[in-house]
């Protein structure tokens, strides 16, 4: 009798296959309906809007973490970013293109706070078919995307808090930790 | 509903976003439920909800009418997979009575990047698809049931989704009115 170590004999592991070029597509209706199920599922397990947003953001983070490796291996030949501006541009263009097939509409720096940046998207895909009920006015399901961004930034060594707001469409507010700003200044000095 | 001259939106989404979003959903379910069977059931139910709405999109896009027989249905299901998921499964293994067939997938956008850990072997990862088929067919007065006969995630060479015709639904009451 042989000793079973794993119940499944792996044919090939993921790492044996070459990385796909990421050109595959599914229809928007398919994605919208899946996202709708995801939102409904989260909603059924919480009581308040903030709780729901947290839950959606958590799910987004799961997605974001996985996109980091995928994109840096595929698009950037393993080179990571070390400066704030570059990582933000990476999010605005590379990440956005991979996720939504286009760049984000705008990237802005807050006038009054050097830690804060805004990524503005007029019409996020995830919100396309969502009408927010009156009693949940503050809910923006794009917090899911905010979760993705947050996970990417954190995973790249730029700890930040990312939130989604109804402003010029949807605005993602990226607030970096102080340490990130301090480090960036050091880099500038050199 | 649809205005004259409005072109149907045929926009697509990157399949990796889709794959990973589905993955996040499944792993959340695995965290929330202790029993894997419950996860399978939940996925099927979500699929059903998707199916009953997706069929409308399918009819609008293809303008297809009533099916002549179950083989016709099989072709349309195959077309549905091509339109919505961008994959074309092979239709094979018809039962002699013509009420059962298999869809074979070489690849499946839902399971890209996926490896099942040992403690999840009972998880039917792509079970959402069985729900989608049930929901979609129910809306056109057909009861079907489907299950995974083979699964690449479990070491099989192909993924095989077996679809069985159960009965024609007569005088169906619209969903939510019973």
Structural commentary:
The complex is a heterodimer of chains A (190) and B (178). By secondary structure, chain A is of the alpha+beta class. Chain A has one domain: Trafficking protein particle complex subunit 3 (Muramoyl-pentapeptide Carboxypeptidase, domain 2, 2-Layer Sandwich). Chain A is built from five helices and five strands; from the N terminus they run βαααββαββα. Chain A has helices spanning 28-44, 49-74, 84-100, 143-155, 178-189; strands spanning 25-27, 106-109, 116-121, 160-166, 170-176. A four-stranded antiparallel sheet of chain A has the order 2-3-5-4. The longest helix of chain A is centred in the first third of the chain and has 26 residues, at 49-74. Chain A is globular and about 65 Å long. Chain A starts with 24 loop residues before the first strand and ends with a helix. The mean pLDDT of chain A is 89. Chain B has a four-stranded antiparallel sheet. Chain B is globular. Chain B is of the alpha+beta class and 178 residues long. Chain B has helices at residues 15-32, 36-62, 70-85, 128-138; strands spanning 12-14, 90-92, 100-105, 142-150, 159-168. Chain B has four helices and five strands; from the N terminus they run βαααββαββ. Mean pLDDT of chain B is 89; it is low at 1-6. Classes of the chains: A alpha+beta (190), B alpha+beta (178). Chain A binds chain B through residues 6-11, 13-14, 20, 22, 24-31, 33-35, 37-38, 40-41, 45, 58-60, 62-63, 66-67, 70, 98-101, 125, and chain B through 9-18, 20-25, 27-29, 32, 42, 46, 49-50, 53-54, 57, 83-86, 109, 112-113, 115-116, 118, 121, 128, 152, 154-155, 157.
Write the layout of secondary structure elements.
The complex is a heterodimer of chains A (190) and B (178).
Chain A: E1 25-27, H1 28-44, H2 49-74, H3 84-100, E2 106-109, E3 116-121, H4 143-155, E4 160-166, E5 170-176, H5 178-189
Antiparallel strand pairs in A: 2-3, 3-5, 4-5
Chain B: E1 12-14, H1 15-32, H2 36-62, H3 70-85, E2 90-92, E3 100-105, H4 128-138, E4 142-150, E5 159-168
Antiparallel strand pairs in B: 2-3, 3-5, 4-5
């Amino acid at each position: 009798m042989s000793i079973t170590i794993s119940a499944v004999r792996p044919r090939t592991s993921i790492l044996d296959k070459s990385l796909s070029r990421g050109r595959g597509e599914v229809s928007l209706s398919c994605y919208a309906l899946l996202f709708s199920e995801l939102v409904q599922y989260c909603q059924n397990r919480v009581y308040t809007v903030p709780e729901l947003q947290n839950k959606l953001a958590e799910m987004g983070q799961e997605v974001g973490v996985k996109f980091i490796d995928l994109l840096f291996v595929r698009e950037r030949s393993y080179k990571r970013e070390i400066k704030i501006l570059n990582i933000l541009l990476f999010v605005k263009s590379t990440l956005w293109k991979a996720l939504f097939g286009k760049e984000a509409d705008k990237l802005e720096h807050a006038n009054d706070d050097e830690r804060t940046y805004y990524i503005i998207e007029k019409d996020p895909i995830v919100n396309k078919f969502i009408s927010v009920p009156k009693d949940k006015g503050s809910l923006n399901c794009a917090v899911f995307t905010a979760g993705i961004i947050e996970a990417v930034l954190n995973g790249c060594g730029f700890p930040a808090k990312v939130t989604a707001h109804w402003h010029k469409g949807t605005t993602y507010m990226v607030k970096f930790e102080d340490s990130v700003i301090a480090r960036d200044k050091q880099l500038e000095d050199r | 509903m649809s205005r004259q001259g409005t072109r149907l939106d045929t926009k697509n989404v990157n399949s990796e976003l889709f794959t990973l979003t589905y993955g996040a959903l499944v792993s959340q379910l695995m965290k929330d439920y202790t029993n894997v069977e419950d996860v399978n059931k939940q996925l099927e139910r979500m699929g059903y909800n998707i199916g009953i709405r997706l069929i409308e999109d399918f009819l609008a896009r293809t303008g297809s009418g009533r099916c002549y027989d179950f083989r016709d249905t099989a072709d349309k299901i195959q077309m549905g997979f091509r339109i919505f998921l961008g994959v074309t499964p092979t239709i094979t293994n018809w039962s002699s009575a013509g009420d059962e067939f298999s869809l074979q997938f070489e690849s499946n956008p839902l399971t890209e990047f996926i490896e099942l850990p040992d403690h999840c072997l009972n998880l039917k990862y792509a079970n959402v698809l069985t729900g989608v088929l049930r929901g979609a067919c129910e809306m056109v007065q057909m009861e079907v049931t489907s299950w995974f006969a083979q699964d690449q995630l479990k070491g099989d060479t192909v993924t095989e989704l077996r679809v069985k015709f159960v009965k024609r639904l007569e005088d169906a009451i619209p969903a939510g009115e019973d």
